[in-house]
Every structure is written in structure tokens, then in C-alpha cells.
Amino acid sequence: MNKTKKLFLSCILILGIFNSGARAQDINFNDAWKFYNAEVEDAEKVAFNDTEWRHLDLPHDWAIEGPFDVKYNARAGGLPFHGTGWYRKHFKIDPNTKGKVVRIEFEGAMYDAHVWINGQFIGNRPYGYIGFEFDISKYLKYDGSDNVIAVRLKPEDLSSRWYPGAGLYRSVWLKIDNPVHVRQWGTYITTPTVTKTLAVVQNETVIENKGNNDIKVNVKQEYFSPEGKLVTSVDETISVSANASSTSALFCNIDNPQRWDTDTPNLYDVVTTVTQNGNVVDTYKSRIGLRSIRYTKDGFFLNGKLVRFNGVCLHHDNGALGAAVYRRADERKLQIMKRMGVNAIRTSHNPPSRELLELCDELGLMVQDEAFDVWKMQKVPNGYNKYFDAWGERDLKDMILRDRNHPSIVMWSIGNEIIEQKDKRNGWKVAKRLNDYCKEIDPTRPTSAGFNHYSGPYDNNMAQQVDIAGVNYKPTRYSNIRNKYPELAIVGSETSSCTSSRGVYHLPIEKYKTHASKHVTSYDLIGPVWAYPPDIEFHFQEQNPHVMGEFVWTGFDYLGEPTPYGGRDNSTNGYWNDDWPSHSSYFGTVDLCGFPKDRFYLYQSQWTTKPMIHLLPHWNWKGMEGKNIPVYCYTNCDSAELFVNGKSMGRRVKGKDLTELKVDFLRYEPKTFKSKYRLSWEVPYESGNIKVVGYKDGKAIQEKQIFTAGKPAKINLSVDRSMIKSDGEDLAYVTVRIEDKNGNLCPDADNLVSFSVKGVGELLAVDNGNQTSLESFQADHRKAFSGMCLAILKSSEKSGEIKLIAKSKKLKSSQITIQTK
Ligand code: GAL
């Protein structure tokens, strides 16, 4: 082992990072594909007639187009994601390309991709979440005639525990290189030392030589500050044998580094220039952050400071857009989570999009990058377990090779709730093997895995194979684990799993398992048997400061897994359709549209310090006059006073006045929990308004008021950004509210809203966050749910204006204009 590697392996884990390589010469290959959604013979052949096939651009998720149907598994979203999909693309290659190396890269293809070029089979890749590339140089026609790439995808029924999407849902690239070039994901930039005054950066770059001669090349690494100023440059000359590769390893120092941190996510650009005989043969860009990470059994340290993970688990879909990757959709998702106080994301349970990781770098979010939901032992009949033996090592290593330059990633997860936990004899061996692969590709980050059993994986030595054991849903066990395994570092890798439907309240408050409405009350109490209100996790985290924090299940609602509805595997053969039309998750702190549920504010009250106050429920309880309504307040103020129509209902002090919650999750004996995290009142209903005033240090600093809304009268539109890019990809999210004449949200309104668009954009999708709605995401109309719905607009490549007009019977219509540039 060389000195560098030893350095990496030291228990102080420090690194810097950059993005997956981007080069000016890479050609985005997303445009002008043809698509056919069924099995068809000979579709790989050049002469195949595809003129009748549908024309489309990527990213594309065929399943999100619907329709929802009870014949599809609600567990996977009730959408037609399984079956065969063929994609073909015709393209010409410049004759001057002959002699170069041409590769095609798929950032992800769902699922089981088989790829042909000009009728020649060039390879396959089963795992839908992993990126891969093929060298296609020798299969291409360079005479100016047509080349055809054909891709067959075959997602299977009963292959996923959630909605996976289907199709070429991430970007495709054509990469044309000189025979001498930087390998795919060919740079590995780490920072063995980062202090306030000095960053030592090491850059290992792999140079491939596809030529038949041994050569010498000069490899130069230039580092640019966040402001774009060249801060340092180093170079060396290395030899690369014919048809082989060599690694350049160059250290450099950066004085007074602008460190990457969650508050100051500074990023440096690294430009790698490869020169052969005085000619530049490749230029490769990477983006890195200079930061140190370190963990002990008592905590996680970023740049030497103890940080707790205020994290959320996120699935990859973006609601109405399905699995198709839009940078803005990922960005908005993360911005909403940041507003809640989130500082970390767990990419449950698979490698995420490149865009998501780039955005986490830019926004200062720490990431647990997770590889698998299953190894060899099955969870669902057609799951990844079928492929694990053949592909597990490659998929895990490729995830790390792709992702290891991202400063945001602070740990790798080798799996979630892996069934091998039960395998006393061999489970730990598989964990050890996977852990070793991680260390081989990136010894600078700790490893983790999510364990939902207690005490099996701790006793059978499986949890000890990773650096940081992830504990799923066992807050009452944190102290047992500490007592029995005092050296083990742990994190709450999946917590709470509380469920709710935005804006829905069922009275009186009761702790039911399911409700006839197929919704879940937003009093933030209800979940499946293993779940518990957020308050309980807050409490046990406080009691066990050695736990590194938590990752809430989940930040956003997602498609599929409509727990507590749907059924259980053993009663339904894996089909969760017993409570159709429930087909999407209730776990999110925000709904599928990204509209906050009440729980969002409970986390915000715990995770943020800027004064905030939130009040629930709504105040439209006609017929309940004189009956007691529970009113909850989530705030980070010291105390709060509630007023009903101006009359004080008393002041409640945080930490002193407790709210009793019914709980009945596994192994929690008391059956009630007295929460200091929420304030509450029981007040007799009278229409009018409720107001809560928050006090800090005796001063009234926050206030929230809810009025009894009158009849729906008008539509109110607001947009997340009034100026977007005219790049054909950027999105504007328009929130639609049904209001009474005074501008109050009508909390039960379900009016049908129809949309029309004028100008340089299109209506991409609509949604309302209702987990039971079977309306299409791709329609030009949507019913409101709890008074709200969403329209997502996409720009075109023309600058100008997009105007959205929203109409509904008997309501005053509304319009909004978005500029694109
Ligand atoms: C966990 C699992 C997640 C999700 C969650 C729902 O056990 O890891 O993927 O299913 O339960 O509560």
C-alpha cells in the first residue's frame, strides 16, 4: 500500500470532491428518439421500420403517462411501469470522427437495458438506477450514412417496493474522444488535510490510451476558486502503454481554502488538461468542495465541528413528473427540504440522479448515498436479488466511482433493511465484502447500512461490518445498543414514518389504523405498527446524544407504497390494491406537489432557529359549534397564546405544557407520550378566527391567524419563480389556491380547475397531492384537494413570456405570467 492510500485510511476522514466529469465535447443525446411501448420483433435491426413509432425527447418515463388502473400494483404507484419499451435513435457521425473513441453513456435506464448499435448487440445493464457506458467506435458507420441505436427496457411486475418509473428517464450522452483521454469518472480528488488555513488536495486521474503505441502525456490540474480565479496549477508527465491506462497522482496545496460547509457550500472547479506532443488531447472538468469529515462513536464532525443529521429520506420520483429527471424539480425538492431545516439527505434506496448530487453540493446538503434495497435474499418476487450475484459488486463500485468527488456525500450505504440481517451465518460476510468494495474505491468516507431488526444484526456481527450502523425505527433501543456495543457509532437512518394527508383532519382525534376516507388525519399521530410521531424520535435523540441524528421517512410523499392502505404482502401476493384507489405514500412531510403538510412545521420548529409559528387545524367546522376542537401549535418560540375570536384561550409554555399523544408502536410501553414539542388547546368551536401569538423572551414575535373561510369565490395563482431559463428544460411551479372572496383558503374545496397556456412554454403536468386521485398528471385540468392544486410549466428554447390561465365554474378565474430568458 502506498503512502497516499495509508493516509486515506487514517481514521480522520477528510476529502474534497468534484462532479462527474463534464467535457465540452460531450454531446447531449436526449433529443429525437423514437419509442414503442410493447415487445416487437427485430426492433434492434437497422432495417426495422420505426416510422410509425412515437417521437420524443428524453428524459422520458412512460409509466407516469398512466393511466392509473387497479390492474397495476398500487404498491408501485398503480401505474403501467412493467412490460417492454423500445427506444430507437437515428444519427449520423461526422466522417472525421473515424479513429476517435466514441462512447455512449446512459445515466440510468429503467430497467434491464439491452443495447444494440447498427444491429450489433453491445451489452446490457439490469439495475435501473446505475449509470453505464459502452464503447461503440467499432460498430459505427463513418461514411455519412444512418446509424441506429436501439435500446430495449423490460421493467418487471413485482420488482420494486415503490414506483420505479420506466424508460430512459435520465440523460444520454455521446462522448467522442481522442484515443488518449480521461477515463469515465476518471478523476478522484480528495483532500487529505483541510484546515482553516490549508487544504492539501490530491488528484488521481486515470488516462486511457486506446492507441497501439506507448506514449507520454502531460497531465495538468488547474484549480479555480468559487469566484473563478485560478488559485493553483500542477502538472506532471506520465507514460501510458499501448491499449492500457495509467494514473496521474498530483498533490497541491490551497492556502486559506474557502471550505465547503452546509452554510457556505463553496465549490472549486478543477480543469484537467491532457497534452500529448504539445497538442491538447483531452480537457476534463470536475467540481470539488474542500472539507473534512470525521466520525467517532459519539458523533459526526464536518470541518471539525460536531453536526447532527437533521435528515430526510427521499425516493427518486418527482411526483407528477415521475422518475424523469428535471434539474429544477430536484432543486425545488431540496430547497423545500432546506426550508424545513434539513441538512442531510438519504438517497433511499438507490443511487440518485447526478443532478440531485450536484444540487446537494451547491445547496450545502450532506448525503448518505445508498446503493441497494436488497442483496441476494428477496423482498419482492422479481427484485434486484436476481441480479445481485452477477452485478452487485460492479453496481456498488460504479456508484462510488461516479459519485466520490461530491463534497455533499459524507457516507456510503451498502443497503437498506437487507433480509440477510436474519442470516446469522452468512449475513455479516456479505456485508463485509460490500464494505470492502467501498473502501477499495473510496477509503475516505465511512460506510453505513440501515438495520430494522433488533438485536439480530448487532449480535450476529453484521452491523459491526460498517462504520456507522443505521438504526431504522428503534429509538427505544438506542441506549440498549450503546450499553451492549459501546464502541458502535449509530445514526437513526430511518425514523418516524408518521403518515398524513395534507389539510385533512378527522375529529375527534383517534388513533385508527385506517380511515374510511382512505386519507390520514394531519394531527400527526398515525402510522403503521413500526411508526411513531416525530416527537418520540426528538425525545430519544435528546436522551442519546451519541446518535448522530436522524433521517425521517420521508421528506416528500412519493408514488407507491400507500401505507397504511393497500394490504400486506402475505395477504395480497405482493399487490397492494385492497384499498384502491390509494396508490401513493402518506409518509411525506410535504405532499406529492411539494406543499407542506403540518408535520413540515413540526420539524421546522425543532430544526430551525429563525422564529416560526404554525397552527392547525383549519377553522371550518360547520355543525361542530360548541364542540371541542383540538388546536395544535408548532413553534420554536418559548410560549404561545391562542385566541378564538379575540378571546384568550390561555398561554402555553414550551417544555412545561405538554401534549398527550396516543402511541402504540412496537416496544413502547407507556402507550401515551407527553410531548413538549407541540403546544395544544381544546377549544369549543365557533366560526370566526383563531390566532396564535408566539413569544420569545417575553416579547410577541410571531403570529398566525386562520379564518373560517366562506364559499369558494376565486382562484389565486402564485409561482415559485417569475423568471426561468429558456432552455427547454426549466420549470415553473404554479400553486393554485381556491379562496373565498376575502382571500382565505377554502380548506375543503375540490373545484375542478382547467388550465390553458399561451406563449413560449407548455403545461408539463398537474397534481393536487391527493393520494387517492386517479386523475392524469398529464391533463390540462385538475381538481383541487384540500383547496389546492399545482400546475408545472416547462420553458421552450425561445425567450419571452409564458401565460397560465386558470378557470373554474362559478369562480373568478386568474392568470399569471412567467418570463423566460
Ligand atoms: C421501511 C423501509 C422503507 C419504507 C418504510 C415505510 O421499513 O425501509 O423503504 O418501506 O419502511 O415505513
Automatic annotation (TrEMBL):
Keywords: Glycosidase, Hydrolase, Signal. Residues 626-701 form the DUF4982 domain. Residues 296-450 form the Glycoside hydrolase family 2 catalytic domain. It comes from the Bacteria. Residues 188-291 form the Glycoside hydrolase family 2 immunoglobulin-like beta-sandwich domain. PROSITE patterns: GLYCOSYL_HYDROL_F2_2. Residues 1-24 form the signal peptide. InterPro entries: Beta-gal/glucu_dom_sf (IPR036156), DUF4982 (IPR032311), Galactose-bd-like_sf (IPR008979), GalB-like (IPR048229), GH (IPR017853), GH2_Domain-Containing (IPR051913), Glyco_hydro2_dom5 (IPR040605), Glyco_hydro_2 (IPR006101). Coiled coil: none annotated. Residues 81-170 form the Glycosyl hydrolases family 2 sugar binding domain. Pfam families: DUF4982, Glyco_hydro2_C5, Glyco_hydro_2, Glyco_hydro_2_C, Glyco_hydro_2_N. The keyword Hydrolase applies. Residues 715-817 form the Glycoside hydrolase family domain. Belongs to the glycosyl hydrolase 2 family. This is DUF4982 domain-containing protein. The lineage of its organism: Bacteria, Pseudomonadati, Bacteroidota, Flavobacteriia, Flavobacteriales.
